[in-house]
Amino acid sequence: MNRATGGTARRMKNKDEDTESVSPQIIHIPEKPPFLPHLQPTVKVHAAVIEPKDANTLVRKLNQIAPLENLRHVKRVQKKCIGEGKLQLCLLLSTVENDGEVDALPYEILELVKSYQLSTYITKVCKYAATSKEEWDEQCKLWPTSYHPPTYNISGITGFTEEESQSVFNFMRHAIDLATSCVGQVVNAAVIVDPSTKQVIASACDGVISSASPANEVSKEGSCSDYPENLNSSNLENQQTSLLDSSIGEFERVISNVACLHPWRWAVQSLSPSCGCWHPLRHAAIVAIEHSSARDRQLFPDYKLNGEDSIKEDCTLSPSKRQKIMDSDFQSNDRSSESVRPYLCTGCDIYLAWEPCAMCAMALVHQRVRRIFFSFPNSNAGALGSVHRLQGERSLNHHYAVFRVVLPEEVLRNKVVDAKIAGCG
C-alpha cells in the first residue's frame, strides 16, 4: 500500500468510526414551534420565603384555598441554594392582581401570611407548559415547572419500541438510498409504507426533470413486495469515500435538483432543450401517491366502495358530504383484508429524504397518511417545521404526526460523493 492509499484508508476508517459513534434518533416535530427562552410568556405571582418545617402544611392549605387552575405546570415550592450548602424554600401563593398590592390577596391567603409571619414578594413564572426539554430548562431558571414529554398521541400513535425504531431507521435508509440512486445527481425520494404489514406500498424519486436522456429520468416506482426487516446496510454504511476535498458549494450543487428545496424553480429557471424542462408538480411525494393509486387500481380492478354508485347518482350531496360517506365506509372495513381496497393512503406512513414543501405536505393531508418521517430539514420551503408547520393547522380536516429521523450525516454525504463521482465518470 503506498502512502497516498494509506492516508485515504485512514481517513475512511476514521469516517466510518465517526458514523458508528452517532446513534440515529427519532425526533417529534410538534404542532407549534417552541418559544425562544427570552420570548416565553410569563405572569407575575406572589411568593414568600418559608420555613422547611411548614412547607407541607402550607402547600396543602394553599391547594385547597387557591389552586393554580391556569398554572398547573408550575410547582408550588422553589428550592434555592443560598451558599454553604443551605437551602431556602420559596412558596408560590397566588397570581398577581390589582397591580401587585399585597392587600389584594384573597382573605384566606392573607391570614396564612399573617399567621406564619411571611414576607411576600413578586416574581415571574412561565405562563405555558414547556413543549421541549430545552424549553423546560429555561423555564426552571425562573421558577420550577413540570415537564411531560409528548407521547405523539395522534390516532393512537405513541412512543417507539426498539423494534419499531429499527424499522423506521431501515425505511429511512431505503429512502436515502433511492434519493442517491440516480447517476450524477441527488434528488428527493418518498417511500410509502403500510405499518401494519411493514410493506412498501409505493416508492418514487423526484420526476421534475423531463428529458429523453436516461440520466435525467429520476422517477422510480417501488416494488409492492414485502420489505425486508433487516436491510443490507453495506450499501450505506460501507461507503468509504470522504467529502474532505469537496467544498460546501459543490455539495449544494449536487443537491440542487431536490424538488422540495426549490419548489418555484420551474417559474424562474428556463432549462435549455438539451436539458429538458422542470415540471412544477412531479415531486417525489406526488409521484409516490400516483404509484400507490396505480397499485390499488391494479390489485382491485373491479372494486368499488360500498355505496359509491349511489353517491354518484345523488347529485344533491355536497363534495364534503360524499367524502364523509366514503370515509366512514372505509373505516368500517378491515384494512388488512385482501378484498378491501384501501381508501387513498389512510393509515400509511411515508418516508422522505428531505422535509416536504407546502404542496407535498398538503397532498399528504388529502391522502390521510398517519405519520410523516423525513431525515433532512428544508430551510428554503419546509412545511413541517423549518418554515411552516402545516401539521398544526387546526382548520384542516386531517392531521398527521411528523418526525425527523436523524441519521449520521455521512450516510447521505458518502452517497452524494458516489453520485458526484458517477456523474463525472
TrEMBL record:
<feature type="region of interest" description="Disordered">
    <location>
        <begin position="1"/>
        <end position="23"/>
    </location>
</feature>
<dbReference type="GO" id="GO:0052717">
    <property type="term" value="F:tRNA-specific adenosine-34 deaminase activity"/>
</dbReference>
<feature type="region of interest" description="Disordered">
    <location>
        <begin position="214"/>
        <end position="233"/>
    </location>
</feature>
<dbReference type="GO" id="GO:0005737">
    <property type="term" value="C:cytoplasm"/>
</dbReference>
<dbReference type="GO" id="GO:0008033">
    <property type="term" value="P:tRNA processing"/>
</dbReference>
<dbReference type="InterPro" id="IPR002125">
    <property type="entry name" value="CMP_dCMP_dom"/>
</dbReference>
<dbReference type="InterPro" id="IPR016193">
    <property type="entry name" value="Cytidine_deaminase-like"/>
</dbReference>
<feature type="domain" description="CMP/dCMP-type deaminase">
    <location>
        <begin position="276"/>
        <end position="387"/>
    </location>
</feature>
<keyword id="KW-0819">tRNA processing</keyword>
<comment type="similarity">
    <text>Belongs to the cytidine and deoxycytidylate deaminase family. ADAT3 subfamily.</text>
</comment>
<dbReference type="GO" id="GO:0005634">
    <property type="term" value="C:nucleus"/>
</dbReference>
<protein>
    <submittedName>
        <fullName>Probable inactive tRNA-specific adenosine deaminase-like protein 3</fullName>
    </submittedName>
</protein>
<dbReference type="Pfam" id="PF00383">
    <property type="entry name" value="dCMP_cyt_deam_1"/>
</dbReference>
